[in-house]
Amino acid sequence: MTNVQEPDWVRHAVWWHVYPLGFTGADTAGAERGLGRGLAHVGDWLDYAVRLGVNGLALGPIFESTSHGYDTVDHLRIDARLGGDAAFDDLVAQARERGLRILLDGVFNHVGRAHPAHAETLARGSGAPRAAWFVPTGQTTPDGSPRYATFEGHEGLVTLAHDNPAVADHVAEVMIHWLDRGASGWRLDAAYAVPVDFWARVLPRVRRAHPDAYLVGEVIHGDYADIVRRSGLDAVTQYELWKAVWSSLNDGNLFELAWALKRHDTFLDTFVPFTFVGNHDVTRLASRLHDPRHLVHALVVLCTVAGTPNVYYGDEQAFTGVKEDRVGGDDAVRPAFPGGPDELAPYGWPVYRLHQELIGLRRRHPWLHAARTRPLGMANLSMSYESVADGHRLVVALNLADTSADCSAPGAVHVLAGGADLRQPGSDDAIARLPAHGWAIIATADS
Known about the structure:
Layout: E1 15-18, H1 20-23, H2 38-43, H3 46-52, E2 56-59, E3 63-65, E4 72-78, H4 84-97, E5 101-106, E6 110-112, H5 116-124, E7 136-140, E8 146-148, E9 150-151, E10 154-159, H6 165-180, E11 185-188, H7 196-209, E12 214-217, H8 224-231, E13 235-236, H9 239-251, H10 254-267, E14 274-276, H11 285-288, H12 295-304, E15 308-312, H13 349-364, E16 372-378, E17 382-389, E18 392-399, E19 405-408, E20 412-418, E21 421-423, E22 431-434, E23 439-444
Parallel strand pairs: 1-2, 1-15, 2-5, 5-11, 11-12, 12-13, 14-15
Antiparallel strand pairs: 3-4, 6-10, 7-8, 9-10, 16-17, 17-18, 18-23, 19-22, 20-23, 21-22
Helix pairs in contact: 6-7, 9-10, 12-13
């Protein structure tokens, strides 16, 4: 039994994740505040996204901020660098015309130091109208001003006081406001850092206004299922599977992937995870993998196991980029997109077409959204597994070796994607022979 709160439409959702400030070439250091290409530039790429096969646009932070978007200063205004509120309304209209839903990034664990509530608190102390929005540490700055709690030590990100009812009121108001304006849901940034009972107070209010909204929390570690149950979220980000995918491919240890898939299955008793092999906070998959031939294996897993898949912009073109732990260390994984598809490098298009093929297969088999997976045959460098739900079944086979491999594929009938030589097709003893570094998605009689 899976989470009954999740809206029905999410079963068919595949997201294209864009970090707008980077995508549009805005100055994320905050020195240049003028309008560049803005959200209109994102709109120019919607047809590209549709051709990719996705039906949702997951946006990084778009609200007024000082620099990179996660230091919000006004949750109710679109950043001027992105074109303001009118640009958002236009993007919503363009997306709707193309059947694309929009997921917004809600940064509600913290605000920027320049947020008016914090600025007035620094200026007026405990007598400021919204002083109780923040958490004093009991320490002072060199000039004697009180210090307030920050997010993971980042002085520019001031933590909100989540036990304050006024903060809960504000967050609920913001979430409802932008759902009213045309968004279909929220990714809640740093949800792991926010007390679970805060979400339990806020999210029911949002659902009363918008029962069809999709609400997913960014959770890196912890008890995913327990967080979902107690918070009222529809889902959380599946970082465990993300790590297992690239790590197992790099180490030549598909037993790690099999273990992660077994654990992934247990989450389905409570919720369907938000799945990905790349995002705005991690090194690009094409840079992370030791062997570029294994990028396809990662994508095959993303598209054939349970989850709500998310493709990070540029990954579909095999973009590279390494995240570094320094100021500006995210820039390499949050680049600007060119003026149009004809300006993209030619080497990326085969990867784009691969994404098209696998996303198309995923959308033709929507039952995969909540499918259970089970290993059928295992070795360090090869494995096969079945994905099963609602009376349907597919077999997936992967080979990382420099030589061909035989993978168990009981009931295999014909190859849907990839390449394999089927031996004894249709029988319980069917075998899929894969070429070196090959893969296959195989139909069965129950497909």
